[in-house]
Amino acid sequence: MDANSRVILSNQTGPHDDLARRVARALTHPLRKPVAEHTRAAFVAAQAWLADQHKPLILDSGCGVGLSTRELARRFPDHALIGVDRSESRLTREHGELPANARLVRADLVDFWRLALDAGWRPERHYLLYPNPYPKAAHLKLRWQGHPVLPALLGLGGRLELRSNWRLYVEEFALALTQATGITAEVEAYRPEGETYLTPFERKYHLSGQALWRLVARLPHAPDLMPRP
Ligand SMILES: C[S@@+](CC[C@H](N)C(=O)[O-])C[C@H]1O[C@@H](n2cnc3c(N)ncnc32)[C@H](O)[C@@H]1O
């Protein structure tokens, strides 16, 4: 991957004006999109694998090629790592054998998080590493903080870590988090230490001279955050 990644350009200069309304809506209006059959099947298989692990769960949501899932599995040998991404081509890129405590799952997170919440999953840690920024103002609803699935993501609970090369993304997420849960989380600069990058995007952005941002929040398990039909 080359290291001349462009900085994010957006027509937004601050948090989106419509963010609070969208979060309020997500908290009160059930998300009616049916769960895709392929994600349901992938979830059932992941659940069986997890049950065999007998270890607390760490989720790596939007794991891309799964390098972070592999690395986190090595850092947390007493945990079971599940990396989820919807891109078959990313997931199937050859990056060496998966550690025994890691599994990659092809699924849409919009469905996967709801299934996980309904199944009572309680990740101890949850990583959201460099989600697609969707920087155009018109695309707020595609960012996780503006998406109707936000209450499911937050309701899973655990130590949630979001990283992005777009400060505004993390700032907006922090606002949405506080609105939905009352919990505040600091938006901080993140400097990868030495040459250890958790993900290919982190490496690419850092080597391109871009600043990186992150937020860490400790969330209670709160399945009732997600409104039900
Ligand atoms: C910018 S990439 C970051 C990948 C990886 N975390 C990294 O830092 O190298 C964002 C990833 O999120 C995945 N993604 C976006 N929306 C998704 C969704 N609804 N369900 C599952 N994966 C999704 C994309 O396929 C992509 O691999």
UniProtKB/TrEMBL annotation:
Signal peptide: none
Top-level taxonomic group: Bacteria
SUPFAM superfamilies to which the protein is assigned, alphabetical: S-adenosyl-L-methionine-dependent methyltransferases (SSF53335)
Keyword Electron transport in annotation: no
Catalytic activity: guanosine(46) in tRNA + S-adenosyl-L-methionine = N(7)-methylguanosine(46) in tRNA + S-adenosyl-L-homocysteine
Function recorded in the entry: Catalyzes the formation of N(7)-methylguanine at position 46 (m7G46) in tRNA.
Protein name, UniProt field: tRNA (guanine(46)-N(7))-methyltransferase
Species of the source: Bisbaumannia pacifica
Species classification: Bacteria, Pseudomonadati, Pseudomonadota, Gammaproteobacteria, Oceanospirillales
